[in-house]
């Protein structure tokens, strides 16, 4: 479910230049300089951009990728229609991120943990308090590390080089038109 959400987010951008993701695999998306500049202004802007989310998953290397996956799962959960689907997704989120036996357990305050019985009567905002805790953890910890990471800095540098190259080509085309008339 969670990888599908990230994959669906990633498909919103047209394919172009070859860029590697946080795991070194080729990425088929290209971001404008404005994009990485936007990522640097706030975690909210980063999480709104599918390519930003893909790159923010550098957390996998830091063993805290579960935070962004939990946050994404909660965002998808809020859009769920129908009680049966909501119950299924709530249980999946609980079993994946919140139970004592969770495969990708997130670190939330003990008193905020949900009791498994609440899964029988799910509602779109049932994970909101926990999602807010994880968001703040990412905002004040992971996000600042991300902005200093090689993944972000190299991506920004390559965009700046691409932008400068593009501007030089545009100037050359304009000069060519002037001299050819």
Automatic annotation (TrEMBL):
Record carries keyword Secreted: no
SMART domains per UniProt: RGS
Show the SUPFAM superfamilies listed in the entry: Regulator of G-protein signaling, RGS
Residue ranges of domain RGS in the record:
42-152
**Region (Disordered) location:** 1-35, 158-181
> What GO cellular component entries does it have?
cytosol; nuclear body; synapse
Q: Where is the composition biased (Polar residues)?
A: 25-35
Q: Which InterPro entries match?
A: RGS (IPR016137), RGS10/12/14-like (IPR046995), RGS10_RGS (IPR037879), RGS_sf (IPR036305), RGS_subdom1/3 (IPR024066), RGS_subdomain_2 (IPR044926)
Drop me one GO molecular function for this one: G-protein alpha-subunit binding
Give the record's keywords alphabetically. Answer: GTPase activation
Question: A GO biological process this protein is involved in?
Answer: G protein-coupled acetylcholine receptor signaling pathway
Highest taxon of source = Eukaryota
List, alphabetically, the Gene3D superfamilies matched: 1.10.196.10, Regulator of G-protein Signalling 4, domain 2 (1.10.167.10)
Note the PANTHER family from the entry: REGULATOR OF G-PROTEIN SIGNALING LOCO
Q: What is this protein called?
A: Regulator of G protein signaling 10
Protein source organism: Gallus gallus
- Gene name, Swiss-Prot/TrEMBL: RGS10
């Amino acid at each position: 479910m969670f990888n599908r959400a990230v994959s669906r987010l990633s498909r919103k951008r047209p394919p172009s230049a070859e860029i590697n993701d946080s795991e070194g695999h080729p990425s088929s998306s290209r971001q404008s300089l404005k994009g990485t500049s936007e990522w640097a202004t706030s975690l909210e802007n980063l999480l709104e951009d599918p390519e930003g989310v893909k790159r923010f998953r550098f957390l996998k290397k830091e063993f805290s990728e579960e935070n962004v996956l939990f946050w994404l799962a909660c965002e998808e959960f809020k859009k769920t229609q129908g009680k049966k689907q909501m119950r299924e997704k709530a249980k999946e989120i609980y079993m994946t991120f919140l139970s004592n036996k969770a495969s990708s357990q997130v670190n939330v305050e003990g008193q905020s943990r949900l009791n498994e019985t609440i899964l029988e009567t799910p509602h779109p905002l049932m994970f909101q308090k926990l999602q807010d805790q994880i968001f703040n953890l990412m905002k004040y910890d992971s996000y600042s590390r991300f902005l200093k990471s090689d993944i972000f800095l190299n991506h920004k540098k390559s965009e700046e080089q691409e932008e400068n190259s593009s501007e030089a080509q545009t100037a050359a085309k304009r000069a060519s038109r002037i001299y050819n008339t």
